[in-house]
Write a structure and sequence with these properties.
With about 80 residues, this protein is mostly loops. The chain has a domain at about 35-75. Helix content is about 10%, strand content about 10%. It contains one helix and four strands. It has a two-stranded antiparallel ribbon. Strands 3-4 form a two-stranded antiparallel sheet. The termini are far apart.
Length: about 80
Amino acid sequence: MLIAGAIVVGIAGPPAAQAAPSTTTSPAPTTGASVYYPNCKAACADGVAPIHRGQPGYRSGLDRDGDGIACEVCH
């Protein structure tokens, strides 16, 4: 191929093979619904407090001030 007075030399090979789609599945993300603490005393005893919104075990019933952090103080 001649482009603007320059010679471009290259070797064209077969097209690159595309990777086959993955057939493995990832486990579903853990949601807060899979772990339940009836109260902060139980969460503290299990060593998971404080529990942040989005973490397993978080629920608004344990978040006294609604700041997204449940069981902030363990007694």
